[in-house]
Design brief:
By secondary structure, this protein is α+β, with helices and mostly antiparallel strands. Helices cover 16% and strands 40% of the residues. The protein has one domain: Mitochondrial biogenesis AIM24 (Double-stranded beta-helix).
Amino acid sequence: MNAHEIAYKIYGDDMQYVEIELDPEESVIAEAGGMMMMEDGIDMETIFGDGGNQGGFLGKLVGAGKRVLTGESLFMTVFTNKFAGKKHVSFAAPYPGKVIPIDLTQMGGKVVCQKDAFLCAAKGVTVGIDFQKKLGTGFFGGEGFIMQKLEGDGLAFLHAGGTIRKIDLTPGETLRIDTGCLVAMTKDVDYGIEYVGKVKSAFFGGEGLFFATVKGPGSVWVQSLPFSRLADRVMASAPGHFGQSRDEGSILGGIGRLFDGDN
């Protein structure tokens, strides 16, 4: 194996984090800001590039450029156990959801995911970009023309909101998914975009103009609560947003706002 063989344990229910167990000189890579806690004896180093085993400065530069295209930082952080015994480091995502462990050796060595789904991985796993070949997917797919790809033979960990379901598609089987709810898929899944079809449904159905379509064979991971949907609901309920107030859910409603001094 090229990637380090790490062990892990996932804690929590609706707000999970993953604890990585590192043997001496084993390492794990993560996005900046993902670390929750680590034991004494673990060395933290910022690296240039995507964390893979690129050769030379040019390879690192290409890896870093790919990360910029997905909106990520030029740098990643490597956590290495420099102690004689086992040590632990934990990672958590910035919003409620589940941690998804993926063994890339069981997924053909590659998984494609949303650009903000990656949490951490064993050192040796390459975090790059995956260009969607269909123009419609790029313009209307919710995640744009570019998605992240994780390649290698080690463990990787994704994070997504709400409840997560893994669905195994048979050859030719097609599933329509809200564009924000698609978290990840294996490399053989055909991913595209489909128009809702009916004008009334598109404008008044509340589901948007397009669906993501995934066609087997392969596996897909779906989330019940995309962060963008959660953020929209929070903003809509915030005081003062589009004239709304804190008593939005009260019996008085708009009548009560006449007496709150804001109007």
